[in-house]
Design goal:
The structure holds two protein chains of two kinds.
Chain A (H helix, E strand, L loop, with lengths): L4 H10 L12 H12 L4 H11 L3 H8 L13 E6 L2 H5 L2 H12 L5 E2 L5 E6 L11 E3 L2 E3 L4 H12 L2
Parallel strand pairs in A: 1-3
Antiparallel strand pairs in A: 1-4, 2-3, 4-5
Helix pairs in contact in A: 3-4
Chain B lengths: L24 H6 L4 H9 L2 H10 L12 H6 L10 E6 L9 H7 L1 H15 L3 E6 L4 H16 L15 E6 L9 H8 L23 E5 H13 L1 H7 L7 E8 L5 E6 L2 E2 H8 L9 E5 L8 E2 L6 E2 L1 H6 L8 E6 L4 H15 L5 H18 L5 H14 L7 H15 L1 H6 L13
The chains are: A alpha+beta, B alpha/beta.
Bound molecules: flavin mononucleotide and FE2/S2 (inorganic) cluster.
FE2/S2 (inorganic) cluster (FES) binds next to helix 5 of chain A.
Chain lengths: ~160, ~425
């Protein structure tokens, strides 16, 4: 497999960061950055990463299975993550979550048939003082409400 | 992103927040930036740096409050192996959102803190382990690290001193457990984030089998000021065994949620009333989680406390990670306990059976209870199950799940009883 020039440059830099004999250190960040480009950790990605880091595919698989952000199936073009953990819950995070499920017509970890949206209920994303919080991909949206959620979805649809 | 500062704040770590381009090296250099490492390299021996950090009474801001200088002194002086600095930027403790601000607004302060630590223990490489969700912060840090290399604050022969230090970011990929120091090190090595048995502690056997200083972002960020102004000056900002200031993240049912830098030992009632503007909607306070969701909950009448590690411990709770969650009178504590337990059940790495099974069954019991299908004996069962997890796991995640649960059952038992016999949750819909 080959990736974009930008990603290849990043990966080349990444593998140099770990001490001799510890190439494996690059595994988790490498998987995440590749997933961002490819969409998911496919069989090919597992094989490719294993080869590059001198690991067996099984060693890569067991790591993929552990981390919640790594996935075997692609998410939607807009991956909407709603936090319902304690600080968000106290400020209406559950209402935002219920609303999100209705509006997007998706349940936890589902992707829309057209691939535009996927939805996930997530744990604390470090925005507790600006709750309730939503993350779309890597972008943060603070102090959400059902109304603001609708505006956000409209904006994303037009992107 | 940064809330409006409050006049009661003592802005040490946040003093550059709000300056134009506060994340750039030029802004940093114009405001004391990299002066501390200059001083450390020119005027201080490594031992003197450690002495100064000890004198500052700086205690770890990641949760446990371990004295930072003491931890650094555990790193063997003479080591045939290389040594490492690891910055814990996994910030995932529910209620905590301060490291994010420190990295977003002033990444060079963190770089300089890590650099001084490296000089103190003679480490020549370091990693900032950033939770995967904080990608924009990795970009900010990478940019700042690039600037520091360009200006000679990182890399070979720093400021002509002969001292070398390389610093890299390292992305996690979603796992609360990877904030736990030994699981973090496993993850840094490219493995599943499963805790290691200790001893040996990371200071002796840490990253890649080598001696390692591992501290929280905020702990490292405190170091440049300490070196510039002296340990005693920093210690004097706080209380006797709790030096300095810390960032408190006010969240939940409070009028002015936000992150505020206050002296250690700041009274909790004033934090709620004056800094946070009081409980929202004119309601009464029911409870406070004083330091992230892993801490035992305080009832309103127990909150007359100075916010430092020792006072909170004496009160049967913990200062933890600085996440102060305010809970009003209309909140269902059974639901709060349930949501907190769902988090730990989701995040348990599964390595230790008491934690893996305990969090799962407690999650089920609390779900059933909140739905009105619990029995009287379930109340004691919940407490007993939680009690049985305490101290029986490789890492403290089991305790972190058990402690808030035990405290809620003990202190709010009547709310559990209100859910008996199929009764509807009395607080549902009050929001
Ligand atoms: C389950 C668990 C999660 C943790 N998460 C974090 C975290 O996200 N950030 C952090 O700095 N410390 C976290 N800690 C504490 C670390 O294990 C460690 O004590 C800390 O990073 C040491 O740095 P300090 O002495 O500067 O606080 C966690 C601990 C446990 C048990
Ligand atoms: S609890 Fe939702 S961001 Fe922290």
């Amino acid at each position: 497999m080959t990736f974009s020039a930008e990603l290849e440059a990043r990966l080349a830099d990444m593998v140099k960061r770990y001490p001799p004999g510890h190439l494996r250190g690059a595994l988790v960040p490498m998987l995440l950055y590749i997933q961002d480009e490819v969409g998911a950790i496919t069989e090919d990605v597992v094989q490719e990463v294993a080869t590059r880091l001198q690991l067996t595919p099984l060693q890569v698989e067991e790591v993929v299975g552990y981390y919640s952000m790594l996935r075997r199936q692609p998410a939607g073009r807009h991956h909407v993550q709603v936090c319902t953990n304690i600080s968000c819950l106290l400020r209406g995070g559950e209402k935002v979550w219920d609303h999100a499920r209705r509006q997007l017509n998706l349940q936890h970890k589902e992707t829309s048939p057209d691939g535009q949206f996927s939805l996930e209920e997530v744990e604390c994303i470090g925005a507790c003082s600006w709750a309730p919080a939503v993350q779309v991909g890597y972008d943060y949206y603070h102090e959400m409400s059902p109304e603001k959620f609708d505006e956000l979805v409209e904006k994303l649809k037009n992107q | 992103m940064y809330n409006a500062p409050h006049p009661l704040e003592v802005r040490i770590l946040t003093r550059r927040f709000g300056l134009p381009n506060s994340a750039s090296i030029d802004t940093y250099l114009a405001h004391d930036g990299y002066k501390a490492i200059e001083k450390a390299l020119a005027e201080m021996t490594p031992d003197k740096i450690i002495e100064e950090v000890k004198a500052s009474a700086l205690r770890g801001r990641g949760g446990a409050g371990f004295p930072a200088g003491l931890k650094w002194s555990f790193v063997p002086r003479q080591s045939p192996k290389p040594k490492y600095i690891v910055v814990n930027a996994d910030e995932s403790e529910p209620g905590t959102c301060k490291d994010r601000l420190l990295m977003e607004n002033d990444p060079h302060q963190l770089i300089e803190g890590a650099l001084i630590a490296a000089r103190a223990v003679d480490a020549h490489a370091g990693y900032i382990y950033v939770r995967g969700e904080y990608r924009y912060l990795i970009d900010i840090l990478d940019r700042a690290i690039g600037e520091a290399y360009q200006r000679g604050y990182l890399g070979k022969n720093i400021l002509g001193s002969g001292f070398d230090f390389d610093l890299h970011t390292h992305s996690g990929a979603g796992a609360y457990e990877c904030g736990e120091e030994s699981a973090l090190l496993e993850s840094l090595e490219g493995k599943r984030g499963i805790p290691r048995i200790r001893p040996p502690f990371p200071a002796v056997v840490g990253a890649f089998g080598c001696p390692t200083v591992l501290n929280n972002v905020e702990t490292f960020c405190s170091v440049p000021w300490i070196i510039l102004n002296g340990g005693a000056a920093y210690a004097n900002l706080g209380t006797r065994k709790n030096g300095g200031t810390r960032l408190f993240c006010l969240s939940g049912h409070i009028n002015r949620p936000g992150v505020y830098e206050l002296p250690m030992g700041f009274p909790l009632p004033r934090m709620i009333e004056e800094v946070g503007g009081g409980v929202w909607k004119g309601r009464k306070l029911k409870a406070v989680i004083p330091g992230g969701s892993s801490c035992p909950v305080l009832k309103a009448e127990e909150t007359n406390l100075p916010m430092d590690f020792d006072s909170l411990q004496a009160a049967g709770s913990m200062l933890g990670s600085g996440g102060v969650v305010i809970i009003d009178e209309d909140t269902c504590m059974v639901k709060a306990a349930l949501r907190i337990m769902r988090f730990y059940a989701h995040e348990s790495c599964g390595w230790c059976i008491p934690c893996r099974e305990g969090t799962m069954w407690l999650g089920k019991l609390l779900t059933r209870f909140h739905a009105g299908a619990g029995t009287m004996s379930d109340i004691d069962l919940i407490r007993e199950l939680a009690q049985n997890m305490l101290g029986k796991t490789f890492c403290p995640l089991g305790d972190a799940a058990a402690l808030p649960t035990i405290s809620i059952v003990k202190k709010f038992r009547e709310e559990f009883e209100e859910h008996l016999n199929g009764r509807k949750c009395p607080h549902e819909g009050k929001g």
